[in-house]
Amino acid sequence: METIKSLTNKKVKDWVKLKQKADREQTGLFLVAGEHLVLEALKHKVIKELIVTQIPAYGNDLPQYQVTPEIMKKISGLISPPDIIAVCYKKETKTIGNQVLLLDTIQDPGNLGTIIRSAVAFGIDTIVLSPGCVDLYNDKVIRASEGMVFHLSIFRQNLLEIINELKTNGYKIYGTDVHQGTNLKQIKFPIKKALIIGNEGNGVNQAITAACDIRVNIPMVANCESLNVAMATTIILYEMAGQNHE
Known about the structure:
By secondary structure, this protein is of the alpha/beta class. It has 9 helices and 12 strands. Strands 8-7-6-11-9-12-10 form a 7-stranded parallel β-sheet. β6, α5 (about 110-120) and β7 (about 125-130) form a beta-alpha-beta unit.
C-alpha cells in the first residue's frame, strides 16, 4: 500500500479532477465515497483502486492508497470526509428489460438518485436518460441512489429514438401529464412497458408526449397541483409494481 501525505501529489490532483464531469467523461472513471457505496461497487466489480485513511477489512486484491484526513476531505469535498473512497470504472450497458423508465431532462442530482433508488425497489430493469439529464456519475446522484446505480442497466440516448425502438418491440409507452392524463388507478399496465418522467419544471417535452400511447396522472386534492418529480415517480412505480399484468 502506497502512502500519500501531500495535497500536491499527482494522484491526489487526478482524483480531485474526477469531481468534474469533463474529467469523468475523458477518463471513464468516477468516485464513490463511504463504506456502504464502496461495498456496493465492490459487489459489482467496478473498482479500479481504493483511497483510504485506514486499512479496510476487504478489497485486499485492489490497489490501495493511504492518505491523510486532509487529503480525503479535499477529494470527497465533504465537510465530514469518509474513511474510504473508491475510484470506479463507468459501466453503462445497453440491455433493455420489460420494465423501462425514460427520464426527460431530469436536472437535479438528488432527484435522479432518488428515482434510481425507487426504480430498483419497484422492479424497473432499465433506465434511459435523455441527453439533457444530469450526469449519472455526479457524486450527489451516486449518494442519493444509495448505491442502487450499480443494480440497473442505465444508459443515455435520444428518447424519441428509444421510444421508436420500444414500440417496434411491442412496448406500450406511458407519459406523465398532470393536467390531461388518465387517473393512474384506472390503468392496467401490460408486461412490456415504458414510463416517461419529465423535467422538474416543464414536464415531458411536447414531441415526446405526442409519442406516448397513454398519458397518466396521480389523483390529488384540488389545492395541490403537483408533486416533487422523484416522489411522483415513486408513486407511479409502486402502482405499476402492484398490479397483475395483462
